[in-house]
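tokens incoming
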């Protein structure tokens, strides 16, 4: 069990291969990035080119 001072999503990701469950509180206004589009998806949506994004849209907790 984690309090708000710990990064529960990050710890959950780091422990994903272990048989443990992570329970933690998260701020109600936390914003997490969605996965970035693949290079082929980005190229199809932006034929003029450009640098692909590192993150996708925002997933807001409310």
């Amino acid at each position: 069990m984690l309090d708000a001072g710990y990064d529960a999503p990050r710890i959950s990701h780091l422990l994903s291969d272990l048989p443990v469950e992570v329970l933690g509180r998260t701020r109600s206004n936390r914003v997490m990035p969605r996965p970035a589009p693949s290079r082929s998806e980005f190229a199809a949506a932006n034929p003029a080119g450009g640098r692909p994004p590192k993150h996708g849209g925002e997933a807001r907790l409310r």
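note: Residues 1-27 form one domain.
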